[in-house]
Amino acid sequence: MSAVQKHTLRGEALRQKVLETALQLFSERGYFNTSIHDIRKVAGVSTGAIYHHFKNKEALAQSLYETILGQMDDAIAAACAGKSACLEKSRAIIEKMFLMTVQYPQQMQFVLLAQHREYLPDEAPICSSSPFRMMKQVVIDGIAKGEVRELEPWVAATAMFGGALRMMNLQLDGVLDKPLSAYQNAVVECAWLGIRKEQA
Amino acid sequence: MSAVQKHTLRGEALRQKVLETALQLFSERGYFNTSIHDIRKVAGVSTGAIYHHFKNKEALAQSLYETILGQMDDAIAAACAGKSACLEKSRAIIEKMFLMTVQYPQQMQFVLLAQHREYLPDEAPICSSSPFRMMKQVVIDGIAKGEVRELEPWVAATAMFGGALRMMNLQLDGVLDKPLSAYQNAVVECAWLGIRKEQA
DNA sequence: TTATATAAAACGAACGTTCGTTCGGTATTT
DNA sequence: AAATACCGAACGAACGTTCGTTTTATATAA
Q: Label partner for A26 (CA 20 to 30 A): which of A115, A136, B81, B195?
């Protein structure tokens, strides 16, 4: 019979536990209000273990940021797959992002609300991250295909997704009384009426 | 002839200098990346002088926050004054906010982008601050007067102002190639087409 | 005008705390 | 036995804040 396990967490599992705990605390209290000692206590690991897996606190946040942005990226790409119309793609993106906001509020809080440039100085603004570039591209394609009016790309993109993003903020701030999904159709319709090419 | 002034700044003037410097540093580096010692150095005042005028660092930020929100409030109220149609009020609000974003980027950065709850724990989310409640009220009135479709208030408000707010973010992030005002008409038009009651 | 007294304002060295990080050692795996 | 993973006490730096002192402005008296 083998000896009792001294450590409950080792290797990759420990690494994941640290990431999970950091995400929880960062999204609850913010990056600067969360110390490595806090993460250590809540995760139930040692300081050394954290620094064995991550170069420093900033790298830990960086890892979280990239992972979550990547997940958003995959989700949005998957939502668009097989669709060609701008409206359908946009609807699918908003549906997916609303779903993720409800399902993974910590992740969305961390990516959407946090001011990453304050602690990730080399990070580009969120608007030029991959998920946001995809949204912009969807409406640019819509313009090219004649489904969307000939607007400035930035205007068309913010018009299509600006309302939805604010609704996600409201959801994360807990001020909505109905589930986020209940507003989805109306949000998409309002945005689309604003940018669609009128079928005269 | 009177003696040479030892202090260049005293009383209210010093207080204003501290506020001005704090706003500059907070908006450039963020609240947590700005120490009292930084403010002291840049403003050219002593630590004691800062603490003579402000209870602590948090109260300094609080004072800034309230002042700027108040200014936004006044500006928006003034923009709406004398107008009754929802579209005209909305256009005036967006015009004013675009102007303020260009004219006072530090102020807008501080109120719009910073995560105040991380250092002002008792502060309400920005969406329930007075300027944002006024925007929502404008579209609620528009619905009551039959100018806007019968949408959920939150949906109508985010549809009307969500795009404009994102454009302001883009301007503050420095990613726009044309002046913000150049996009104004298109932004207002897109939003309005989305929520107006169709004149059948 | 000049001198004196008092209060308010500004000063800045110093304090205690907390933070991110290190590192010598121990446990576990291979 | 060698390598990897983990441990946690300890460290130096930086932070927000304090407080005894000095300077300045103001009021009053000579």
A: A136
Give pLDDT tens digits along chain A (200 positions): 344 566 689 999 999 999 999 999 999 999 999 999 999 999 999 999 999 999 999 999 999 999 999 999 999 999 999 999 999 999 999 999 999 999 999 999 999 888 888 998 888 889 999 999 999 999 999 999 999 999 999 999 999 999 999 999 999 999 999 999 999 999 999 999 999 998 65
Residues B71/B65, Cβ–Cβ less than 8 Å: no
Helix runs in B45-144, H state only: 47-53, 57-80, 86-103, 105-108, 130-144
Helices (H) and strands (E) in chain B, counts: 9, 0
Cβ-proximal residues to A66 (8 Å cutoff; 6+ apart), any chain: none
Question: What is the value of pTM for the model shown?
Answer: 0.93
Structure tokens at A7: 């450590």
Angle between helices A153-173 and B153-173 (to 10 degrees): 120
Are the C-beta atoms of B96 and B76 separated by less than 8 Å? yes
**One CATH from 1.10.357.10, 1.20.1260.10, 3.90.1170.40, 3.40.50.2300 for B64-195:** 1.10.357.10
What does CATH list as the number for B1-54? 1.10.10.60
Token digits for A17? 């536990």
What are the domain boundaries of chain A?
A: 1-54, 64-195
**Residues in B lying within 8 Å of A, measured between beta carbons:** 29-30, 32-33, 113-115, 117-118, 125, 127-128, 151-152, 154-156, 158-159, 161-167, 169-170, 173, 175-176, 178, 183, 186-187, 189-195
Q: What angle do CA A109, A111, A116 make, to 5 degrees?
A: 115
DSSP 8-class letter at B112: I
Residue of B nearest to A127 (CA): B170
CA distance A60 to A27: 14
The 10 Å Cβ neighbour count of residue A9 is 16
Burial of B97 (0-12, 13-18, 19+ CB in 10 A): buried
